[in-house]
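Please, structure for the following, as tokens.
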Amino acid sequence: MLHNTFVHIPGIGETTERRLWQAGVETWDDFREPYPQFLSAQKVQLIRTHLGRSLAQAGEQAPYEFYRQLPTAQRWRIFPHFRHAVAYLDIETTGLSFIDHCITTVSLYDGKEVFTYVQGENLADFAEDIRQYQLLVTYNGKAFDVPMLERYFGFKLTQPHIDLRPLLQKLGFTGGLKGCERQLGLDRGHLAGVDGYFAVLLWREYRRTGARRVLETLLAYNVEDAVNLESLLVQAYNLKLQGTPFAESHRLPLPLLPEKVFFPDLELIDRLRGRLRGC
């Protein structure tokens, strides 16, 4: 979709972009003589100049300039072009608020491999690992995950960032990450019903007992949060395409899930649920 995009050019809005598509100018390479008659000579020169820069930027495989130039509501368009350099991120913490709580685990999925980071073990490694990725994808990460990570590590995550919460909200999907997953057909299996507060309890239980099965249950949940972001973004991308001439040609298949690394302890989950119910 990036090479079909013209709204990143100053002065070109969605109406002009749609008129370009309707005139047969569907890609940057299509913008050549004879130019559409509805464009002034000044506008033609403006588009030509910016498309030259765009081609160079796309060749450099650096998403920042496109992210900066695109309207906020259209930044989803950069996803496929930079999919090879995406980090799907999710964190768990000692509490559900931003203030006075610490990161317990981080899960990072790059579309191929899952990486996990644990407080007291290898959490510091995240600071170096995240630098190799050019695009971040989260759910509500602009408000929570990224500020928490920046505060903990003491540096800014400057990569372009697609936050799925507002993107999915505009498509009519609400109810938090788990609600969006259910509406879009994702099934968490044995982890259904486990939420952020439950993750807090799992960490407390792990700190109390030191039992590895408790930590692995927490990581199984955390990893599920990160891995499912890819499926959600692919579905959101396909739905956004429906408003363009490229709904079929650019449609992305649902991604294959990676092999599971961690498995939840179902007996532990039932026991903690019983404790929550006062049983």
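The chain has a mean pLDDT of 94. The CA atoms of residues 236 and 263 lie 28 Å apart.
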